[in-house]
């Protein structure tokens, strides 16, 4: 890139061409006052404060944020004339300003205040009328006080450019201009809080803060968001040992200061009064508080008894998608070496059993994305079976950045019509019919070959089994595929052409695909697609197309990396392989008995239902409501004699347990999380648990092990991570202290470590479609998905999130609704062969006919007790009584 | 030489028996007369609406050199007003400098003449209610 040299305030600086003076100075630590310019946003030039004296060919006054740098330019920031101008601009800005700094939560970090102070503005010469506009408090999260607004337009741009929502804009004109929603309707947006984060003044207020502290009183510590798998860095603002608000920092973390509603406003659960306060032991059907020592003593005695009577095999363990890598590593080590069982699993693996091996395969073959940032650098984005906005909001923001900066094309394919705000120049939204994902991918492959969209010669030479391809596609026709998928042939052709356009392509494989019964073949088909696209591009060691696998929770990736699955030891070394076993035995100094690796079933709940498990140890999960078949879990629990649950709240699962152990939240512990881009990031301990006698999971396990007669000598998660570093090959090179400064990308070091030919190998599958048997009694299919506002147990204890979206809806197609005379807001009953629930209907055009969509993330709605599997046949009828 | 001595003695004796010249105050029977600028305990003032004037801006806490003020703001759910949910003043640590009075933008803290602060406990923290009660007793509000 061409660089430019210029002089700002006697300092010579070098910046890339096309930068504006403001950004150039900012990057070089020279301060220019300004309210409307923000590095993340497009430049607006509305506040007029950033006037500087610029000498190019002649000397003139320019607005720094609107003027690009040029070679040899001389900039003076503080000439007397400039300062005089700046002072009068400020005087105008302050003329209407309400100046309620003492009650304004922004005071102390307010740019307007800072500039006023810096320019030493004394009482104004103007005697203007204050606006006295009423404060808008039409939603539970954000408050808008227009009297403090300087009309800098940052919030408007943030909402439009970053979040893609455009919920707010300038209303009216001239002196009457204000920021607000169209027709002054109540704010109805995704509540990402972006406006709040960029506003230079106190117009936007965080209502979860509620005046509970002032900026200068807060201790700010960065940590990782406890909700979804994007792994945004959040900054917790604490005062006297309690979390008061969450802010973000534009310069740290993968999210560049962008957050979603959960990350920014879902922190109230940390201080929820409903947290578990002491260990609980169930006696005669009721919980009794006990001391840690008694509880652990009791558990270890019971577990020891089970081991003595039935062997360790009779104990099952469920690790957590929400706990740290250290917790999970220790959990599986404990289960395998102390309890002597290999019947351990986590919910992510239980829900999509074929994902782990395929994901690891694509990583080592160099097909998988090695970081979430690849979305940002892509030129073509293909979201397949994922609802980005709801599932990974900030990844959606990255996609919008790619669209904005790289002019990326966007392809979205899903069963439902999902909304993704932000439009690309080439923007394709497809809905394929239920179960037809493989024919769809195959059609794309076929078109690519037929139309020679890639360099076939090159592909043929680099792919050793390329010849299998024409054979497999012999009988396959795009036309048929178009009928099966319900996507027109033309559309598919356009899609294929866009995919193979030059530039990087990032394919995001969503949960809808991963949890589907046909997931194995679908993912293989996707991998084939990537192989084809990569094989024909000039091999620079850099893949053209990469595959990113969705994960749901903050550490869904890490829990699998740490081997809390029956098939793998930590780092995806298979348990069936004897040499792997020996290796681990050597490292841990134990001896496994071979029979624990051989079970009649892999599914832990199935084993339990068959009575094979006598004890169950569950760490931080609530499978009763988060496993697609709640009834099976319930039966499994009833068959299991002794259940221990370790959690922050008394969840539905914990209520069924015999012993419940209270653990701490993310703010109260340290460790590492791995996001879905395989980036390991460090969590910081920010506060002490207050009012609850809770312990971090790893510590509980250590004490538990001690009671069982083993000694674990870990003093902190740091020790555990250094063991992980040596035991888990994919994490080798990780360093706990270094993580504080820089995240660790494990996939990049492993990526493409298998030999070249493996990188280009096709794994042809049959273009099957999934058929759900039509059932007269249950004519609808129940489809579940994620929700933006809720996730896991924590969100339901965060008042802000619950008040924004208190209710779960059953989304149905307009036509279906019409047939049954159901209207928006009517109470409907969804009944399956095993259970029913009553929900309010939401009639939309989003779900196709015959499908009813309900979000799973409202944990208090037992939708998973209705489900009998991934797709459940249900019937729907209008509720006649009251809800 | 004896004369000046006697002179002095006379003055001493005169003073000794003159009741008007007694400076010792019979505290606590007799209340001291304090100068108008006396700085006693900072007290919270009451506004027209009968509630505390304080708006929980925390400036007093920020300015206090001995860090003896704790302010915890909160939102009044009905009026949406900002008010101090907690306002505590550690009288042991206060040095009666009056900075808090000066910093307060709404004149909610004023150091008046409360000086009797001894206690049998090893701490002497005035909470919001106690600080307001001091003002209530004076029956002044503005
Ligand atoms: S926005 Fe800034 S200047 Fe305005 S009242 Fe708030 S703190 Fe004061
Ligand atoms: S609300 Fe804030 S960010 Fe938006 S225009 Fe006003 S001052 Fe700027
Ligand atoms: S929930 Fe996900 S997208 Fe939202 S802030 Fe947390 S990590 Fe980021
Ligand atoms: S008088 Fe001085 S020391 Fe006492 S509370 Fe006020 S600021 Fe603090
Ligand atoms: S400075 Fe005044 S208004 Fe602010 S917290 Fe202190 S007493 Fe209350
Ligand atoms: S920062 Fe340049 S006009 Fe506002």
From TrEMBL, chain A:
Its main location: membrane. Residues 2-81 form the 2Fe-2S ferredoxin-type domain. This is NADH-ubiquinone oxidoreductase chain G. Residues 218-274 form the 4Fe-4S Mo/W bis-MGD-type domain. Pfam families: Fer2_4, Fer4_Nqo3, Molybdop_Fe4S4, Molybdopterin, Molydop_binding, NADH-G_4Fe-4S_3. Residues 81-120 form the 4Fe-4S His(Cys)3-ligated-type domain. It comes from the Bacteria. It is found in: Membrane. It comes from Candidatus Jettenia ecosi.
TrEMBL record, chain B:
Keywords: 4Fe-4S, Cell membrane, Iron, Iron-sulfur, Membrane, Metal-binding, NAD, Quinone, Repeat, Translocase, Ubiquinone. Residues 44-74, 85-114 form the 4Fe-4S ferredoxin-type domain. [4Fe-4S] cluster 2 binds at residues 64, 94, 97, 100. Pfam families: Fer4_7. Binds 2 [4Fe-4S] clusters per subunit. NCBIfam families: NuoI. NDH-1 shuttles electrons from NADH, via FMN and iron-sulfur (Fe-S) centers, to quinones in the respiratory chain. The immediate electron acceptor for the enzyme in this species is believed to be ubiquinone. Couples the redox reaction to proton translocation (for every two electrons transferred, four hydrogen ions are translocated across the cytoplasmic membrane), and thus conserves the redox energy in a proton gradient. Belongs to the complex I 23 kDa subunit family. This is NADH-quinone oxidoreductase subunit I. It comes from Candidatus Jettenia ecosi. The lineage of its organism: Bacteria, Pseudomonadati, Planctomycetota, Candidatus Brocadiia, Candidatus Brocadiales.
